[in-house]
Task: structure prediction
Amino acid sequence: MEREDVGAAILDVDGTLIDSNDQHAHAWMDAGAELGYDIAFDHVRPLIGMGGDRVTPRLIGEDEDSDTGRRIRDLRGEIFREHYLPSLGPTRGARELLERMRAEGLELVVATSASEEDMNPLLEQAGIRDLIEEKTSSDDAEDSKPAPDIVQAALERSPFGAERAVMLGDTPYDVEACRRAGIPCVALRCGGWWSDVDFEGAAAIYDDPADLLAHWDESPFGRLARGERHPT
Result:
């Protein structure tokens, strides 16, 4: 590679590269119903993007490590994988964007609140697993988003420091995690639910991966690929 110093694209998955956020919410609702909890869509949907360690107590009033917390976590995962995952598709332009990133010399590192058990099937369903060099999941972070742990874990998997990385996400939790980790976050609207006001602090906002790709040259990723450093 002619450019000695390129950088890393840190990638969220759910809602960013695969259209899955509503289905995750429904899986929580279904699991809650089986265990006797009435979980409303409008209650759980804004929580999607955080890890289960943060979602569980907000929904049932018990920690994820409690007996009931583990039951709803495991049941939610089973329901999602069996009933929702097979029908999911990538967000518009997801594979094409990642192919452009690789062609520009960016290293692709996944940083997701999904479990390791869910992550690879999600990447397969999105049709992008073969493009990813490094992966980090909720299993690699002590605290989930909006804590910066998973972003920092992704940076540790990369030879590039925070000054040579940009993240792509779809929730305010991604933006906050990046702020605390000291890297820019590009936000996508395709995750649904959130307005641009909720993405305050994002380096840029686009509709989806295809929109970002259409504006590649002026985007933070395009500037990173050209060797422009961002302030820390």
